Amino acid sequence: MTDTSRSGRSRRYVTVDVFTREAFGGNPLAVVLDAQGLSQEQMQAIATEFNYSETTFVLPPREPRNTAHVRIFTARTEVPFAGHPNVGTAVVLAHELASQGRLREDRFVFEEAAGLVPIRLFREGATIVGAEFTAPESLSIRSMVSAEDAADCLSLTRAEIVVSHHPPQVASVGLPFLIVEVGSREALRRSKPNFLAHERVLPPAGTDAVFAYCRGSASQELHARNFSPLDASIEDSATGSAAAATIALLASLQPESDSELGWRVEQGVDMGRPSLLLGRTEKRQGRVTAVHIAGHAVRIMEGTLQRP
Fold first, then answer.
1. CA dihedral 241, 108, 15, 7 (to 10 degrees)
2. Residue 111 CB coordination number (10 Å)
3. Do 145 and 282 sit in the same domain of this protein?
């Protein structure tokens, strides 16, 4: 990566739509290349300017054996880990390295605040089309929220919240979400965030986002929506970190002591940006030992950004 720390240098950015094969689907991401020399305040200002759910900043790795140090910002704050930023940043960086003749292998390791994030690139022929990340943390199950409060957050009735498999539960594999199962695809379609309920319920529970899902027609198939108005994003069209926490939670609840399961999560349909997230969970001796999320990414725009 080029040293651009001197004043007056412009920096390249690339935007991608993630968890989709089609332009203008999935979840948009801005990737700022060569981010050396930018302060945290400048990164935050740039992320706010893009106003996507996340923007990433690519820095040289702290350890030479790793690929890059990646910082992730929402329009409001820096986060330690997120899903679609890893897939999108990996695809952008792989294209950059390939264009320079420097792409040596199809595996990356990103340094992030939550820990190391292993990445595996996907190709179709010689073209890099997507990536799979492994969550940096083991599953942690945290606060429970009442079904009534979960219903308020989603503007639904108590009867539409399913608690037979798990209560509304905060869980994390790097970033915490309130995970709520709803009883039908129709209830999921009607869900919408109640800002006052989010303010009342979520911060005490240790999160700022609700990941609502219902079960699909096939085993290990989910339909989902993610709401985080407290983090300046009314709805997210594809949330890899939340999907990872959810499938890890569901795998942990299954009776098998050892399993390797594939998952399919459809998100963004109800907001007109359909997304497909493909997950894998590994369970050994009753404990989920690894969770992976994969998807495609499509380049949309690129340009230069003047240093603030």
1. 110
2. 20
3. yes
pTM confidence score? 0.95
266 with 146, same domain: the answer is yes
- Fill in the amino acid letter for 143: S
Query: Is residue 96 one of the residues assigned to a domain?
Result: yes
Q: Which of 22, 41, 54, 137 is catalytic?
A: 54
Neighbouring residues of 219: CB distance < 8 A, sequence distance ≥ 6: none
DSSP string, 43-84: HHHHHHHHTSS-EEEEE--SSTTSSEEEEEE-SS-EES--HH
Reply yes or no on whether 54 is catalytic: yes
Same domain, 126 and 155: no
Nearest Cα to Cα of residue 53 among 69, 33, 80, 73: 73
For residue 80, the domain's CATH number is 3.10.310.10
58 shares a domain with 108: yes
Residue 28 contacts residue 20 (beta carbons within 8 Å):
no
The number of distinct structural domains making up the chain is 2
Asked whether residue 156 falls in the same domain as residue 276, the answer is yes
35-50: pLDDT as tens digits: 999 999 999 999 999 9
SS3 content of the chain, % helix, strand, coil (to 5): 25, 40, 35
Q: Per-residue pLDDT tens for 115-154?
A: 999 999 999 999 999 999 999 999 999 999 999 999 999 9
Beta strand 127-134 pairing with 161-162: unpaired
Q: Which residues pair with 262 in a beta bridge?
A: 280
Mark whether 263 and 300 lie in a shared domain. Answer: no
- Asked if residue 93 is part of any domain, the answer here is yes
